Amino acid sequence: MNLVDLSGNLLFTAFVAYLAGTILFGGAVKGSKNEASASNKRWGKLGITVTIIGFLAHLSYFITRWIASGHAPVSNMFEFTTAFGMLLVGAAILFYFLYKSPLVGLFALPIAIVILGYAAMFPRDIQPLIPALQSHWLTIHVITAALGEAILAISAVVGLIYLLKNIDLTKKSKERTWLEFIMFTLVLVLGFIVVTVGFRAAGYEAAFDYVDKNGAQAEVVYHMPALFGMNEYSAKTEGTMQPLAEMPAIINAKTLTTFTWSVITGIILYFLIRLISRRRIAELVKPLAVKANSQLMDEIGYRSVLIGFPVFTLGALIFAMIWAHEAWSRFWGWDPKEVWALITWLFYAAYLHLRLSRGWEGRKSAWLAVIGFAIIMFNLVAVNLVIAGLHSYA
Amino acid sequence: MSFIKCECGHQNPEGTDICQNCGRPLSKEEKSKRLADMRYDGAAIRSKTHKRSIVDKIWNFFSSVKIGVSIIIAILVASAIGTILPQVFYVPATSEAQAAQYYEDNYGLFGKIYNALGLSDLYGSWWFMTLVGMLGISLVVVSLDRGIPLYKSLKNQRVDRHPSFLKRQRLYGEGNVQDPDAVMQKAAEKLKEKRYKIREKNGALLAEKGRWARWGPYVNHLGLILFLFGVMLRALPGFYVDESMWIREGEISAVKGAPGLYLENKGFSFDMYTQENTNEVFSEAIDRVGSVASNYQTDVALYETPEGALPGSTNAELVKEYSIVVNKPLKHEGFHIFQMDFKLDELSAMTFALEQKESGESLGELTVNLADPQKEYDLGNGAKVELLDYYPDFSGFEDGEPQTATPVPNNPAFLFKMTTPETPEGETSFVAIRQTLEPLGENTYKLAFQSADTRDVSGLTVRKDKTIPVIALGGLIFMIGVVQGSYFNHRRFWIRKSDDGRIQVAGHTSKNWVALQRELDAVTEHAGLPAYTDQRDKEGHSDKSEGVSNT
């Protein structure tokens, strides 16, 4: 077995361990009456042990891939997202030891699993570095920024627990709707994974010629039946579905097709779940959260912002500026990715000020933490794939 | 300034929430709260006490955290809007009209409106800069408004606070103990062991540590102010140079914006990853993607005219030779020269043969150096070619006159006059790539294209930014402040015994209450202090009791 295969197997091991860890943490929470007792249960200890094993396997994936390629494996969408998942689990482990709450693990691991699943949908081959990325700042900047984001994400994890516990799901309210919306977006990501894996297993491929926005001829290969066609497309593969509509050149119809398929699949999945369980997803998950201590969740959320904010500032802004100064001749250029890092930073700055001076604790704070995570995810997903800029490496 | 007199007799400035001497609640609002508002230790802040003059009103506006957060959110939203479409500096347009056209062509009506509203240059707009400026002012005002009273309050804090002050702390416990003095002494011991500074007075004890963490926010605000100041400095002449230049292989050219510096382009190279030249782990990716660039490099020599040399003097001395690649700019005296762009295979010279059309007999060859075309080329034996006119980037005819779009030799065209012994009058020929015109009638001779030489052109950016030290210092101070405020905690315990043997204990921290509780747990266990509760945690009591019963 060569290093690259070994690396892939280690990542799979981590994935399986996280699944097992989720189940064990679930057992710890289910078998206890409340927060303080749950941590004493054998299940909790088993859960964290398996999680740590998974994390070590994940870390070994990272190191072996690093050795194989000669650069830190954070240079494209698959690598970055996988690393982010790893750091999220690392942050969850850190907070488990700080507060001994298995609930953090129970909710962080599924999110890490979804993130890993999402990462696996992108090309996994090892790519050589383009000139702009050939710098040790790639390692320093990206890993620090991702670590900061992972720590900040913990605040969203406990924020979600806080909201699940404290929002009354029996009464109609805006909060109940939004909470269900969060659950729905998680199902959407699953929809993306299911539909991608499905068409991939079926070996679907359809090639088109099209005219790109600079007026040049180009070729594109869809891996899903084309709902939307690229600008002035013509089909090259026989017997495949013809696009339902043609898009102008500035819209990437392939991305739009993938997005639409994901949404369709996500909606079907969501309604299947609703139909079978006859409940909202939030209601299904709520029993796991009711044992949380609200004050402790609020405390963990605040603490994770306090720990994550300086790390994020250092990685995503300061190191970013130093590198930008070396590579692009200016430390700041209003590139969309830079701007969204600034937006994330401003948002958490607002979180801290609202909390300190205006007493936004508990529920308001929890909502802010969830929105903060949404901004981080937007920067990872939409800014890379939709908004074109200097950071579009994926 | 008016004062509020506390029951204890202390004169507090107006606006004080908690008596700075004994800790009793003073304001009506404060009295109505179950727990003390410890944000600035209850001290009067300027914006709450001065409300009359215009200056006060402006001050109060900027000192409001509500306003501060609103400014932050406004900048946030504006920044987000600016990423919807590419900003004008990322758009391939050289004029405003071209840019407007670009937005309309590419993004339709939305693009037209976006550009017309000025959103395509949002970050350079006056209102965006005003927002950032307001944030800067807010940072200064808030820091002074809150920082100074907090500093004074903590510096002058008293040890023996009124029982009501302790009772209104979030962590609070009270109860009877057998030997209050021994308990107090043991508590002090344990707290000292935990590196608390202990002060005792009249049967009351104040233990405190990490007060400096409270200055973190003010330090990081100072860093931000410095950072913004550094950015503002750029507007001053001489602080900031930003030029781009194209330099052809073999050329020596003055470095733009850097008087006295000259750069020679000794060669540009552009490399790709191939299956052969890289590690085999990349082979799958190279197969999938096709071609991936591996290096852009300009080998240069930097020259400088010695100081005191006459203007225009050419005796420049070699400073150094360097290979500029992406991520490794050439650095010299504060100037950074970056590899930013390139153009491969620009025409540098073209060779023609003067041929008799019918026989194809050649009278000789001439080579036109496109960077330095000659007026006349003598081929010997009475044959010569005059270059009447040269159009480096021929773009067609206008009113019968050939036009050039740019001075760059992208599509060179020439107007030649050929003189031979056979045609002593001379014949005129217009020669462009794949096109020959004979404007003044049929010629006997022609200039046949033989070969062309090409060279690469490097696109370099020259930067000098004297504001970097100020900006870097601002960033550093910000980081120090934010770490100071986030990773360290200000913790205080008050313990008080009353004459009847009761002991009160209270704790406060700027953050991380769980850790504070752990410390108090340890002290309680060691000294036998009365049990405390977290008065904020409504679910906590049952948790704790069950947690204990399980162990």
TrEMBL record, chain A:
Cellular component aspect of the GO annotation: plasma membrane
Top-rank taxon, per record: Bacteria
NCBIfam families listed in its UniProt record: cytochr_II_ccsB
Membrane topology of the entry: Multi-pass membrane protein
Endpoints of the signal sequence: none
Domain Cytochrome c assembly protein per the UniProt entry, residue ranges: 83-198, 264-391
Protein name: Cytochrome c-type biogenesis protein CcsB
Keywords attached to this entry: Cytochrome c-type biogenesis, Membrane, Transmembrane, Transmembrane helix
Recorded GO MF terms: heme binding
An annotated GO BP: cytochrome complex assembly
InterPro entries the record matches: Cyt_c_assembly, Cyt_c_biogenesis_CcsA, Cyt_c_biogenesis_CcsA/CcmC
Membrane spanning residue stretches: 6-25, 46-68, 80-98, 103-122, 142-165, 177-199, 256-276, 305-325, 337-354, 366-390
Subcellular location(s) of the protein: Membrane
Organism per entry: Bhargavaea ginsengi
Primary localization class, coarse: membrane
Key word Cytoplasm present: no
Automatic annotation (TrEMBL), chain B:
Subcellular location: Membrane
Sequence ranges assigned to domain ResB-like in this UniProt record: 65-422, 443-521
Membrane topology, from the record: Multi-pass membrane protein
InterPro entries membership: Cyt_c_bgen_Ccs1/CcsB/ResB, ResB-like_domain
Superkingdom per UniProt: Bacteria
Keywords: Cytochrome c-type biogenesis, Membrane, Transmembrane, Transmembrane helix
Composition bias type Basic and acidic residues, residue spans: 534-551
Protein's UniProt keywords contain Transmembrane: yes
Protein name: Cytochrome c biogenesis protein
